Amino acid sequence: MTEKALRLGTRRSKLAMAQSGQVADAVSQVTGRPVELVEITTYGDVSREHLAQIGGTGVFVAALREALARGEVDFAVHSLKDLPTAQPDELVLAAVPEREDPRDVIVARDALKLTDLPRGARIGTGSPRRMAQLNAYARTHGLDIETVPVRGNVDTRVGFVHKGELDAVVLAAAGLNRLGRADEVTDFLSVDTVLPAPGQGALAIECAADNADLIAALARLDDPLTRAAVTAERSLLAALEAGCSAPVGALADLPPLSDPLERGDSRADRQIVKEMRLRGVVGTTDGTTLVQLSTTGPVPGTQEQAMALGRELATEMLAQGAAGLMGERAH
After folding, report:
1. Inter-residue contact 34 to 28 (CB < 8 Å)
2. pLDDT band at 270 (very low <50, low <70, confident <90, very high)
3. Given the DSSP bridges, would you call strands 145-148 and 121-124 parallel, antiparallel or unpaired?
4. Which of 311, 303, 177 minimizes the C-alpha distance to 229?
5. Alpha-carbon distance 29 to 27, whole Å?
6. Beta bridge partners of 168
7. H-run or E-run covering 184
8. Which residues does the annotation mark as catalytic?
9. Rounded-to-integer distance, Cα 175 and Cα 181, Å
10. Which residue in 95, 82, 85, 81 sits closest to 200, CA to CA?
11. Element containing residue 243 per DSSP (H, E)
């Protein structure tokens, strides 16, 4: 007799379905059980408001978590950057698989790169974080751009460029890669130009805290370095008391690996890594003021060490005036 299928809760967007499908295959391999996708509509999917207005944090997550709590699904897959930093007691983050490319990318008309865009170019993004850093970069490099708030899925956003309403849009590399659309990227934004959102490129696999067998099975998909990195980034975000719609960028990376990987040299992963660098940025959306700092420490061996790295950097950023740059602080 075949074992009962595990039910995976997912949002309905193309991207969510693509990444949940990839996780479903992996879970099926480690458990030997079939996995069925259960589509759930979240408030973030149906609301037409800008994310910053509907609270950003958790708008794509609450409905999935409610389905988990009611036992309608066995586990759920989230984009980790959408998860609120506080973890509910009844749920556990069972696995954070190996991270995709964390960078932001540009999809521009005429295959243009950021620095080749015409004067007055209109660049679409729904993210205050991207606006703050793009505007700051433009200001210091003599570029004349206008950041325009947009919402919608990848098709909608790229459509603004194809229809000529915008010159470019900013998207996450990971999303386009998972959708098999990496060839549409016209420019990769170096993390020195735009730091990604905390957790960007990583997935979170969540299940009920009392389901010990499933937790043990899902744990086999966990990547310890990715988990340490995103834990440090999210700890920084939490210590700044900012929600995921705040203009905060953070990236924990492993310096000997990151630079060759950005150059496309995959052999980098054979090096031995001893240090983790955490970078954080917060700024006003017009880019006039940025607080950007970094710290480097031993690769965290525990959750607590990773969180301490994030808190330490947040404390330094707050001392440099970060709190005043975030508008309404999330409560």
Report:
1. yes
2. low
3. parallel
4. 303
5. 5
6. 108, 123
7. none
8. 82
9. 8
10. 81
11. none
